[in-house]
Design goal:
245 residues; 7-stranded mixed sheet; globular
Length: 245
């Protein structure tokens, strides 16, 4: 297996077509099982990561959740901030169907979901905060960061969370072993996810989304840029703010 024992391969730059190819393969007809898979395969740590994102928010009135999937983070934000309007955007119709089923009539006008690529979404009304979970490794960040910045209010917060390959050789070895087990066991019980279990590790090894994102944030004039490693370096939260006039 490439990269075993923490020897990460030198990542070749991925094209947008490659990234979108991953999206189409990974998220085809898996919407009904996504919530269960993300909880099981992260041993519940995904909920902790979502809470970390929510704790960074400060009573927002309007939030954009990019690549919202089945709405896990969108619903959590809406529950934590009952007066907040949340817009969730995702390209996968199957996942949005599941999000809308969960919404029912309970969200009223405070929570809505819209289909589309994150890089192409536009809004005339600005947001206090734009968040994303598991989007950065798939996205065209050169388009997404400037567009997101333009939709933020002055002082608004931009938060990107996604998987990362551990820098520590010891933690990288644990990471590699985990995916070996996931491929062996998970693929047997969840055949719809087998392709994800086998291809996702290579995608994570190849991506340089943290460095790319922080550089583009600086180029876009964002300030207070920072990165926080989460849970044995298996994920990272990158944040920045739009400067005030």
């Amino acid at each position: 297996m490439p990269g075993f024992c923490g020897e990460r391969q030198n990542p070749a730059m991925m094209t947008l077509d490659e990234k979108r190819g991953y999206v189409r393969r990974f998220f085809s007809a898996t919407g009904d099982s996504y919530d269960q898979i993300v909880s099981l395969c992260t041993f519940g740590v995904d909920r902790r990561w979502k809470r970390t994102i929510i704790e960074r928010l400060d009573g927002p009135g309007r939030v954009l959740d990019l690549a919202c999937g089945t709405g896990i983070l969108s619903f959590a934000i809406a529950r934590r901030y009952p007066a907040c309007q949340v817009v969730g955007v995702d390209i996968t119709a199957d996942y949005l169907r599941r999000a809308r089923e969960k919404l029912g009539g309970s969200g009223g006008s405070r929570l809505r979901f819209q289909e589309g690529w994150a890089e192409e979404f536009e809004s005339d009304e600005p947001f206090d905060c734009i968040v994303s979970s598991y989007l950065a490794k798939y996205a065209d960040l050169s388009r997404l960061v400037p567009k997101s910045s333009s939709m933020l209010k002055p002082g608004g917060l931009l938060l990107f969370h996604d998987f990362t390959y551990p820098k520590s050789p010891l933690l990288a070895s644990v990471w590699e072993l985990y995916f070996k087990l996931l491929q062996s066991v998970g693929g047997r019980f969840y055949p719809n996810w087998r392709e994800v279990f086998f291809e996702l590790p290579e995608l994570i090894r190849r991506t340089s989304w943290v460095e790319d994102l922080m550089g583009l944030m600086r180029e876009s004039g964002l300030v207070s840029i920072g990165a926080e490693a989460l849970t044995l370096q298996g994920a990272t939260l990158v944040s920045a703010r739009k400067s005030r006039p």
